[in-house]
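Next up, sample data:
>
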Amino acid sequence: MLNRYPLWKYLLILLVLLVGLIYSLPNLFPEDPAVQISSDRGEFTLDERRLERLETSLSDAGIDIQSVEREPTSVLIRLDNADDQIQARDMLSEALGDDYVVALNLAESTPAWLESLAASPMTLGLDLRGGVHFLLEVDMDAALQQRLEVNASAMRETLRDERIRYRNTEIDTRAIRMDFMNAEDRDEARRLISREFPEFEYRNLERDRGAGLAMTLTDAAVEEIQDYAVNQNLTTLRNRVNELGVAEPLVQRQGPARIVVELPGVQDTAAAKRIVGATANLEFRLEARPDTPEAETESFPFRNDASRNATLMRDVIITGDSVSNANRSFDENGRPQVNINLDGTGGTLMNRSTRTNIGRNMAVLFIEHKTRDRTVIEDGKETTVRTPYTERGIISLATIQSALGNSFRITGLDSPTEAAELALLLRSGSLAAPIYFAQERTIGPSLGEKNIERGILSVEIGLLLVVAFMLLRYKVFGVIANLALGFNLVLLVAAMSLLGATLTLPGIAGIVLTLGMAVDANVLIFERIREELRTGLSVQQAIHAGYERAFTSIVDANITTLLVALILFSIGTGPVKGFAVTLSLGILTSLFTALMVTRAMVNLCYGGKPVKKLWI
């Protein structure tokens, strides 16, 4: 019989629409404006009495508090009004001082029964939800310094293996200088080193006693090192951001030495800076023997006890770059530790060094590059002067009981938070060079709220115009098309929520375009039905022919647009991707509602009934 679906097809359409409705519902529960209190040092302690005083001071200032939620590493204060966020943040910052960080935030308000079904609202982009924008600058001088230190260590090891005596090593800007007992040793060292390190230019130095050798990096080598530093930092930052679980982050290069990082939805700048900007790395070194020459040793304090020191060898066994995986756990006494897995090269170097030094102490040296910013007045203008410095401290100093391989553990950490962050940094890789925050900007949720309001308004206007046109043009069939259009919007929102796609302003533009395009298929079908009626076909035959003969044109047009959307997604970045996501999902939902949902409604209204006239 014409224009009748089997029962299972009606049930399938009903099930899809029901699932779409459920998973689009969380978007009707807007996030609550909130203020988040956390510690700048990772560890968080805020007693109940002090928290109550803070709540009282906010209430006295006329700021309505919805609720206060204490979490292990922060306190979240939900507010009734977004306009009170900035005032609340300023008051709390002044009351708590520099020991705590107070940040704007948005807290989800999805009902528990929806959360139990794994339903959650769409992820909003930086332009809608707010977030953090960092402009990072790579320290090129430090990149050269680090590479020269690694090369100098390798050169010393080569000379020791060949039993060539040297007196000291100096590193300055782009050059390494070494002194030797006589010219013969210098010439032999130059022959050996130049073969392994062709990126240097070599020059003999005259000394009052002995002979010297200067090794200077070529211009091409300097450019290669600097380019590698930026690209490696890009990779590391992307890994760190992925570990943070931020949806649709932006990490891209800007110019020769800068990197842009945008984290949508992140309002806790302290946590973001602590992870993104951390330039921490590890070095594993042997403790120096009492008879080791001073030129080959360095002394460092312990990180958790500055009054204690240990003297270590200058040569590094391995660094954090050799770590393939790291995770936090607890030892048999309940103290935090980090379990380390090394790559093949790192495991070989560790085994070679430890198997010949059983009974000797090995230190884990924690290295962190930081800056001190101070404001000076030059020519009547305030200028920020950034002074870089490096902190080195020993995390642990333990006796080598047996030869170590690819797996071992680091103990001596102060807290579980420190262990978790160290494991994250080691998993994501160390930075090839220190980075500094050249610019930091927090985009507040209030700005995103205005963008959302304007975006919703544009969707409403577009939807209203389409609905009015369809009603005037196609009457009863226009009502069917408009209902399908509403289902289409519900399914699109549900699909984006389920897939975790990020909605941006360009994405809203894609939704508006989808609503306009969604009725194209219905227009083709309805016009085809009109043509068939004019040729003298019966109502049932005209409906059947309209859907059947318009099918090819509809699929062809939408598949072409879908391919374009997929290309945009694959080659585009940022806003272009956001537009492509909503457009491609919108095409799929439009095909379903135009071909399946409207046909089901038309079948229910007219299928198998003696209809003499269609209101179309």
